[in-house]
Every structure is written in C-alpha cells, then in structure tokens.
Amino acid sequence: MGSVTRTKLMSIMALSAMIGLLLLPILVAIPALAGDGGSPAAGVKKEGGDAKVEKGKDVYYKTEGIVSGPPAPKTTDSEKDYPRYNFESRVLLWFANQQHLYYGSFVLAVPIFCMIIEFMGVVSKDKALAKRYDQLAYDFIKISLTAYSLTAILGGILIFTFLTLYPAFFQYLSGIFRPVMHIYALMFVAESGTLYIYYYGWDKMKEGFLKWIHLSMSVVLNVIGTVLMMLANSWIGFMMSPAGVDEQGRFLGNIWHVIHTALWNPLNLHRILGNMAFGGGVVAAYAAYRFLSAKTDEERAHYDWMGYIAMALGVSFLIPLPFAGYWLMREVYAYRQQMGITLMGGLLAWLFIIHATMIGILFLSTNYYLWQALGRMRGAEKYQRYIKYLVFLLTCG
Q1: Residues 116, 218 contacting (CB under 8 angstroms)
Q2: Does residue 334 lie within any of the structural domains?
Q3: Beta-carbon neighbour count of residue 330 at 10 Å?
Q4: How far is C-alpha 121 from the chain's CA centre?
Q5: Quick one: how far is CA 311 from the chain centroid?
Q6: Considering the domain boundaries, does residue 278 fall inside one?
Q7: What local confidence, expressed as pLDDT, does residue 51 receive?
Q8: With 60 as the cut, is the pLDDT of residue 289 above it?
C-alpha cells in the first residue's frame, strides 16, 4: 500500500513539475511579450542633451511603434554576407530544412495519435479492447522516440547551416525573435522531459488514477509540441509576410505583431493537418513492414490492425488538408499578389503542377489501400459495388 501511495505521489509531483516547465517560459517571456520586447536604444536620439524617441510605422498593421532594433541588413553578393564552400547554399539549406521538417512532422503527429488511442482505451468498457488500445498507443510512442532524437540532431544541423551560409540574415532574424527563441529552447527541454517520463512511466502508470495522470501527461506533451510548431511557424510567416517592423526592417517593439503575421494562422492549420496525415502514412508503412515480417498470426493481426488505425487517422486529416492549403494560398494572394503569382503561375508554377499531381496520386493510392483492406473483412462484400463510382469521382476530381 505504501509503495502504491509513493508511486502516486511521485507521479503527481512529476506532472506538477512538467506543468511548471510548461508555464515557466511563458512567465519568463511576459515582460518581452507585453512590453517593448527589447531596449529601445536603437530608436533613441539625443539632441541638445534631450532624448528623442524615434517612431516607425508597421508595414502590415499600419500602427506606430518605437524603433527598437537595427534595420534589415543590406546584403551584397559577397563572401562576407553569403559564404561559399563550393556547394549550392540554397540546396544545402533546403535539404537540411526538409529533413528536419520530415522528422519534426512525425514526432508532432504521433503523440497526438497516442493521446487519442490511449483515451479510447481508458474510456472503453471492454477490458480486452482497452488492453489492445493501450498496447497500440505504446507501439506508436515507441516509434517516435528514435525519430525525436534524429529531429533534435537535424535541428542542430539546420541552425549550423543558417549560421554558416547565411550569417547576416540569421543574425537579423534571431535579433528580432530573441524572446521567442528563448521560449522555444525552454519548451523543447520541457517536451523532451515530458516525452521520456511519458514513455518510461507507461508500465508504472497502467491502472486507476495513475492511468489518468499518464493520459494527462499526453495532453501536456501535445500542448508543448503544438506551441513549438506554432513558434517555428512564426519565423516562416515573418520571412514570407513581415509584420511588426517598419519599411527599413526595424523592430517596433511589439513581439506579438512579429509573431502574428498575415500567414501565421493559415500556416498553423496547414502544418498540423499535414503533420497528422504524414504521421499516419509513416506509421501505416511501418505497420505494413512489420506485418510482412511477422512470424505468427497473432503478430500479423496486431500489425494489420495497427496499419488500419494509422491509415484511418491519416485519411481523416488528409481530407481537409487541400482546403487548408487553399486558405493559405488565398492569404498569400491577399498579402501580396505578386508572391502568389510567382508561386502558382510564374517561376515556381511547375512545382505546383507536380504538387497537385502528387495529391491526386495520394488520394487514389489511399483509396486503393482501403479497397484492398475491405477484401479481408467479413461482410464487406456489399460495399464493393460502390468502389467503381468512388474511383470515377476521384479520377474526375
């Protein structure tokens, strides 16, 4: 009895510590978020012994603010601003960014799947089914641990790439987003601690009140992960649609304006849906591999079910993804029409053609997988006649 009480107390203390880690970055950043976000020394001029505050006009919000940072650097095509190492810098940066995005999307999506599946197991009244859901959620989170470590390594490589190949740009960006980057680093530490406690505490917190504590940890983990994603999106949004700065690129003291750009919310929605669809596809592929390599019928049945759940979750988020993409591109056109024309009708139009083709292939292959899965289910024969109509609609669409 004493051991159970001690375990319960330690679990509550661990959860309290994680919540404290979650709130600590926000408390630390309150002065920066509510105030000027930095020293206004860059906008102060002394004339005749009196300090004169220089103000600027926000390029997006059209509000005035105190100049609190240096102007955007005027770079030139030189070794100082763009160092060269006999490689194409943009290709290297794209490669590092893309790999980090792949793994980052996966490790953000899988804990959400775990939370959903674990909750289904907790509320299920069928003990056998609840055990299967719990084992499935454990398998999901086990996959993400290795990917999480690789994500951190790739993130370090990405920062090193920015510092090495684009030093002037990264210095300017990190100067504006300094409080945001501090929060990001602390949130990353909080997410790492929460993830490992969540995983290694699984067997110790399988019953009763401790199981609800464990489920609450998954909620905390996903809140942290979502906030991390949104903070990273603010950097992308600022690069594409600057706000919170004047025409010279000088920071005007309101960090919320810098974060909340015209494209921030569309990027958040598009990325979270994309993460979920991508994560579901990767887990389904993993389950298919384990199904083919399984030695017993019981293992094959488990991984077949795992693939079905992963694909169902992935498809449920894939369906609204094109609509989120439409909203994102509409906001791009609304912010700056020329940028939208360049993306969809100019220099990068060929990428959008390939993109649209890949989306069509994705929907067709997903439906083909589900059609094949129907063949293994008893009583599914009555739905087979609808397949040809579905394929016709997908092909026409």
Answers
A1: no
A2: no
A3: 12
A4: 26
A5: 19
A6: no
A7: 60
A8: yes
Distance, CA of 24 to CA of 195 (rounded, Å) = 18
DSSP H helices in 35-80: none
DSSP for 298-314, please give it.
HHHHHHHHHHHHHHHHH
Q: How far is CA 201 from CA 116, 134, 162, 214, 386, in A?
A: 18, 13, 37, 8, 46
Largest CA distance in the chain: 89
Domain count, the chain: 1
Residue range(s) defining the domain that contains residue 46: 2-71+83-261
DSSP state, residue 361: H
**Amino acid letter for position 302:** H
Per the domain annotation, does 10 fall within a domain?
A: yes
What average pLDDT does the segment 357-365 reach? 85
Sign of CA dihedral 71, 72, 74, 75: positive
Residue 315 above 70 pLDDT? Answer: yes
**Within a domain: 389:** no
Report how far apart, in Å, the C-alpha atoms of 162 and of each of 82, 171, 275, 310, 385 are: 10, 9, 24, 35, 54
d(CA 206, CA 76): 60
* Contact between residue 66 and residue 43 where contact means Cβ atoms under 8 Å apart: yes
CA distances in angstroms from 281 to 12, 126, 133, 188, listed in the order given: 35, 28, 19, 25
Angle at 64 (CA atoms; ends 61, 65), nearest 5 degrees: 110
Both tokens of residue 202? 């699984």
Contacts of 48 (CB under 8 A, 6+ apart): none
Q: How much is the average pLDDT of 300-310?
A: 88
Decide: residue 104, CB within 10 A, 0-12 exposed, 13-18 middle, 19+ buried: buried
**Which CA distances in Å does 22 have to 187, 194, 384?**
7, 10, 49
Q: Is the pLDDT of residue 302 over 90?
A: no
DSSP 241-300: S--SB-TT--B-S-HHHHHS-TTHHHHHHHHHHHHHHHHHHHHHHHHHHHHHH--SHHHH
